[in-house]
Amino acid sequence: MEKESKYCDILLTDIQLHTIKPTNPPSLARVIAKFLRNGLPGRIYSTFFQVQKDNKENPLRLSIPLTKEWEDKVTELEKAGKKIRFIIPGGGIPIYAGKDMIEFMKAKKNRILKRI
Questions:
Q1: How many helices (H) and strands (E) does the chain have?
Q2: 76-116: pLDDT as tens digits
Q3: Domains of the chain: which residue ranges?
């Protein structure tokens, strides 16, 4: 019989920046609960992550605001004897421009070139 882990690991693999906000995205707690239930990897589309410029050692800081629903999910997991761990790869998290952002930047570049 397989020993059940006392951790719920969330591996952050990459971040994609977009110009278009996701339409009515589900809450972080609901999405993570689905991942844990299915045991499958997935993506989170959200507007709740906050990226701020920090200092030279840590050029960007990513924060996740705690909502009541998220706190309830963490409490529920702790009662079941589990802890949530966010795992960041040793080399950091790559940040990419989403497809819509690339198209936006190309259009902007074309408008600027037409003015010259």
A1: 3, 6
A2: 888 988 888 888 888 888 888 889 889 988 998 888 888 87
A3: 7-115
